């Protein structure tokens, strides 16, 4: 089964020490179909965890889904969302081409970005300010999102961030018309991992937005690295009369306990220790969110989270060899779960109504 591997949401231990973050409460999103619109018979939801470079794992699964269904992700789901790199993927795959409802990126093109841009983004800098290159990350996002606003997303999309001043998870919903933000701003905020990248001050671009609409944000993984339950909750507000759900939740790989100690070997400088600490936080704790998700819906719930060796466990190793290995282990995982995966593909091939 796909959903047998579980882990707890990443806890950025160093960020908690500095900022004293304790709350994981969620501020409510706005929305609802309104106007008496009919809910789909089965609401399809895609949720993707945070995991930095290991985001090539869900990207590989998405590319295979697009290949087998012969449809883009935006045509397969009603609501998508993610944390950190999960937000990069879901928001990026719902950005429309100018003047159309066709997505600007395909999942395979998202994979190509890991190989093309991540080596520049995750080149270690001097331990002053952010550890990695925020400017290179901004360039990648700008090149693929331009000045698109989040409300222009092809389908309803949720970006999970962490509100530093409020001390709680802050989801942004593309259907919220009260505050309109640039897609690039919500992506960069959701992926602003403590110390790895600079936090973001984000303000809406809509007219007459109150000063309180400005947010000081960091990576959503601080409070909600696996956003499945949060996105189900937001989807229920959008489709309050929905009776059944098809939920696909994608993780970024799980490492066996034998690999934990290796994360801290050679941590001779502060920057190395911090990045290894982030790696450790993603892998060491277990999660009950998958169990909560199954309690929230009637329908199908599929969790895919491939096991990976500790040698490929780093969140920041953007070398070609490491990316190749992550894709290889993802392929093994899909083959090992072929029957369940084929059943999912068959359901996704059915018309989205």
Structure overview:
The protein is 38% helix and 13% strand. With 353 residues, the protein is of the alpha/beta class. Strands 1, 2, 3, 4, 5, 6, 7 and 8 form an eight-stranded mixed sheet that branches. A hairpin with a 4-residue loop joins strand 3 (157-163) and strand 4. Helix 2 (56-69) runs antiparallel to helix 5 and helix 9 (228-238) runs parallel beside helix 11. It is globular, with a radius of gyration of 19 Å. The two termini are 27 Å apart. Mean pLDDT is 83; it is low at 3-32 and 266-276.
Q: What structural category characterises the helix and strand content? A: alpha/beta
How many strands, what sense, and barrel or not for the largest sheet? 8 strands, mixed
Poorly predicted sequence stretches spanning 5 or more consecutive residues? 3-32, 266-276
| Terminal Cα span | 27 Å
Give a short summary of the structure:
The protein has 353 residues and is of the alpha/beta class.
Features of the shown structure:
13 helices, eight-stranded mixed sheet, disordered N terminus, alpha/beta, 353 residues, 38% helix
Write the layout of secondary structure elements.
Elements: H1 13-19, E1 42-48, H2 56-69, H3 73-76, E2 79-83, H4 85-92, H5 107-121, H6 134-145, E3 157-163, E4 168-173, H7 183-190, E5 200-202, E6 215-219, H8 221-224, H9 228-238, E7 244-250, H10 270-284, H11 289-296, E8 299-304, H12 320-336, H13 338-349
Parallel strand pairs: 1-2, 1-7, 2-3, 7-8
Antiparallel strand pairs: 3-4, 3-6, 5-6
Helix pairs in contact: 2-5, 2-12, 4-7, 5-6, 6-7, 9-11
């Amino acid at each position: 089964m796909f959903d047998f591997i579980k882990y707890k949401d990443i806890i950025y231990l160093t960020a908690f020490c500095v900022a004293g973050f304790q709350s994981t409460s969620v501020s409510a999103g706005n929305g609802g179909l309104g106007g008496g619109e009919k809910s789909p018979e089965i609401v399809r939801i895609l949720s993707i965890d945070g995991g930095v470079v290991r985001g090539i794992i869900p990207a590989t699964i998405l590319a295979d889904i697009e290949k087998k269904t012969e449809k883009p992700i935006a045509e397969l789901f009603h609501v998508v969302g993610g944390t950190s790199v999960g937000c990069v993927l879901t928001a990026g795959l719902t950005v429309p081409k100018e003047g159309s409802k066709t997505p600007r990126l395909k999942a395979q093109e998202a994979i190509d970005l890991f190989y093309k841009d991540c080596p520049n983004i995750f080149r270690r800098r001097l331990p002053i300010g952010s550890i990695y290159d925020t400017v290179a990350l901004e360039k990648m996002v700008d090149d693929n999102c331009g000045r698109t606003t989040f409300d222009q997303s092809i389908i309803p999309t949720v970006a999970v961030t962490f509100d530093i001043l409020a001390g709680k998870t802050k989801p942004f919903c593309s259907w919220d018309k009260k505050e309109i933000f640039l897609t690039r701003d919500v992506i960069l905020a959701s992926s602003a991992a403590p110390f790895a990248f600079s936090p973001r001050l984000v303000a809406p671009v809509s007219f007459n937005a109150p000063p309180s609409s400005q947010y000081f944000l960091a990576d959503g993984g601080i409070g909600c690295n696996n956003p499945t339950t949060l996105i189900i909750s937001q989807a229920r507000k959008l489709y309050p009369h929905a009776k059944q759900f098809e939920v696909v939740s994608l993780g970024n790989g799980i490492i066996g306990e034998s690999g934990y100690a290796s994360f801290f070997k050679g941590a001779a400088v502060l920057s190395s220790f911090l990045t290894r600490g982030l790696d450790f936080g993603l892998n060491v704790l277990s999660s009950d969110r998958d169990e909560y998700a199954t309690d929230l819906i009637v329908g199908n719930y599929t969790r895919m989270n491939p096991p990976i060796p500790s040698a490929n466990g780093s969140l920041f190793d953007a070398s070609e060899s490491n990316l190749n290995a992550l894709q290889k282990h993802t392929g093994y995982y899909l083959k090992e779960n072929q029957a369940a995966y084929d059943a999912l593909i068959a359901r996704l091939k059915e018309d989205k109504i």
